[in-house]
Amino acid sequence: MDREEGEDWEPLRARAAWADVVPIPQDDGPRPVVPIAYTDQFREVMDYFRAILAKDERSSRALELTAEVIALNSANYTVWHFRRLVLEALRSNLEEELDFIESVAENNFKNYQIWHHRRWVAQKLGVGAVSGELEFTEIVLLDDAKNYHAWSHRQWVLQELGGWEGELDFCSRLLEKDVYNNSAWNQRYFVVTKSPLIGGLQAMREHEVHYCVDAIKAAPMNESPWRYLRGLFKGDQDALAHNPLVVAACIEEIRKDASCVQALSLLVDLLCAGFRPTPSDTELLHQPVSSPADLASNVCTHLENVDAMRARYWAWRRSLLPSTTPVS
Amino acid sequence: MATLHLQKHVDYIKSLDKKSDFDSLVTEHLRMSGAYWGLTAMDLMGHLADMDANEIVAWLLKCQHDCGGFGGNHGHDPHVIYTLNAVQILALFDKLNAVDADKIASYIAGLQNEDGSFAGDEWGEIDTRFSYCAICCLSLLKRLDKIDLKKATDFVARCKNFDGGFGCTPGGESHAGQIFCCVAALAIAGALHHVDKDLLGWWLCERQVKSGGLNGRPEKLPDVCYSWWVLSSLVIMNRVHWIDKKKLEEFILDCQDSENGGISDRPDDAVDVFHTFFGVAGLSLLEYPGVKAIDPAYALPVDIVDRIFYGQENGFTDKL
Prior knowledge:
The structure holds two protein chains of two kinds.
Chain A: H1 40-55, H2 60-72, H3 77-90, H4 94-105, H5 112-125, H6 130-143, H7 148-161, H8 167-177, H9 182-194, H10 200-218, H11 223-232, H12 237-241, H13 244-256, H14 261-272, H15 279-282, H16 292-306, H17 311-319
Chain B: H1 6-15, H2 22-26, H3 31-44, H4 53-61, H5 80-92, H6 101-109, H7 128-140, H8 149-158, H9 176-188, H10 197-205, H11 225-236, H12 245-254, H13 273-285, H14 302-310
Helix pairs in contact in B: 3-5, 3-13, 5-7, 7-9, 9-11, 11-13
Family (chain A): Belongs to the protein prenyltransferase subunit alpha family.
Keywords (chain A): Magnesium, Prenyltransferase, Repeat, Transferase
EC number (chain A): 2.5.1.58, 2.5.1.59
C-alpha cells in the first residue's frame, strides 16, 4: 500500500456526492489460490470503483475516485486504464496530470503503470514535454541510477520527441559519479549509435576509445567499459586487434595485475583476432611461448584458475584455439 | 550441507489459501500470476493434486473477457501477461479444451504492431516481455500461424545489444529477465540463429557472483529469481555448464525458510510465492533430485509440454 490508512478519511458511503452509487463488492470465488485481505478503506474504495467502472462513468468525481484507488494501490493497472479514459472524456489539463504522477511516483519508481501513464501523457503533450521529461528522469536516476523504467522512458523521449543535445554529457556525469553504472554505459552506446547530432559509431570511435581506456584505468575490474570497448568495434575485430590504444591498455592492466580477468579475457580475444604480441608481451605470464596461439592457450589456462567459477568456459575457449603445443 | 525442504514449501504454498497480509492486498490485480507461480511450483514438487483444479479453473474462466484476453483477476482488464498465465494454468490441469483457442489467438494477434512488436494490452505499451507472452501462449494453443512470426522475431532481434544481451525495446539495457523473454521467444519460434550464443553465454555466466547466486545486470545484487531467468537462457543455448552449478544450488538452498517453508530473494529475507517458484524452477533446471524437470522456454513442467505437443495424455509413464 502506498499510504497509511488515513484516520481523517471520510468513507464514501458518508459522502453526499456518492449517495446515488451502489457499491459492487469483490467476488473472490471459492477458496482463492492467492486470497486477499482487505482493509475496510481499501474494500470500500474498490467497491465504489467497481460500481463506477460498471457504469463507465467518465466524470470528475470518477477522476477523483481513481486518484483514491491509486493512492491505495498504484500497481492496479485497471484503474490507470480507466483514468486515461476519463482524462480523455473530460479533456483534462495534462500538465496537471504530470504533477499528479509526480505526487504518486515518489518511492514508486519501479511501478510499470506509473511510467506507462507518464509516457501516454508525454506523447499527448508532444515536443513541449521534452525538457520536463528529461528533467524528471534525471531526478529519478540521481536517486536510483539503474532504474530500468526511467532509462526506457528517457530513450523513448529522445527518439520520439528529441533532446539529444546534452545526452552524452549526461552519461559522462553519471559515470563520473559511478563508473560501474552499466545502465549509463548502455545509454552512452545508445547515444553514440543513435544520436542524429554526433556522426555515429565510426566517427565517434577514437573519442570513445580514449574515454573508455581512462575508465578502465580508474577501475580495471569493472566489466562494463571492457564490454563497451568491444562494442565500439562490433563486427570489426580486425580493427580492435590493431588499435594501439586498446592493445596498450590491455597489456598495461595485465602487467599491473596478472589476475585481472577482464584484461586477460580481452587479450584472448585480441590474440584470436590477429594481434601479434611483442617478445616482451609474451613474457607477461612469466612463461616463454613460441606463438600467439600458445600465449592465448596459456592465458585461458591461467583464467581457469583465477576465474574458477567459470573454469569450463575458459577451458572451452582454450579448446577453440588453433593447434598449440601442449601446456606442460 | 543444506537440502530442499520440499514438504515445507508445499505446505507454505497451500497456506497462501488462508493468508491475509499486506502483500496479498496489493497483488490482487495479478492474482493470475500468483496462481501460476504457486501451481507450477506445486507440480514441480509433485503435489499439484493437492490443489482443487475445478475451483481454480472456474475462477480462472471468470477472468476472461469477451475479446478473448484474460485479466489478472475478476474485474480487471485483459492483458497479454495474464492471458499467458491463464493458458499455462489450463495446461497444468489439462483443461486447454475449456477455452476457445481461436478467440484467445485473435486477441493476441490484435496486439501485434506493424514492426512485429507486441503491445501488452489496448493501451499499447511495448516490451519484449509481451513478445514472449504472445509467442509462448500461441504456441501452447497451436496458433502461431495467427501472427506474423517472422516480423515478431525480427523485432526481438532488433533488441539485441552489443554485449549479446537483450533489452525491452531496441537500445534498452541488457537485463537477464528480458534476455529470458527474448531467448525463449526465439527458441519457441525456431529463430535462435538471432542469438549470439557465445557472447551472450559469457555475459550470462558473468552474472554469477562470489556467493554462487546470480544477478540480473552487472554490479547488482544476486537474487533467486535470476536462478530462473539466467539459467533457463543458458539451458536453451546449451551453455549451462559454463557456470558453477553446485555453488548456485547452495545459494538457492540458503534462501529457504527452513522453518515455515518458502524461498526468498536472498538468504534471510522474507519469502514469497514468486521467489518460491523461481527457486524451485532453478533447482529443477539444475536437475535437483525429487523436483520434476521444467521446460526452459515454456516455463512449464516438461511432461505438461510433452502432453501438449506429443499427446502423451494417457498417463503412460505414471503406470510404469
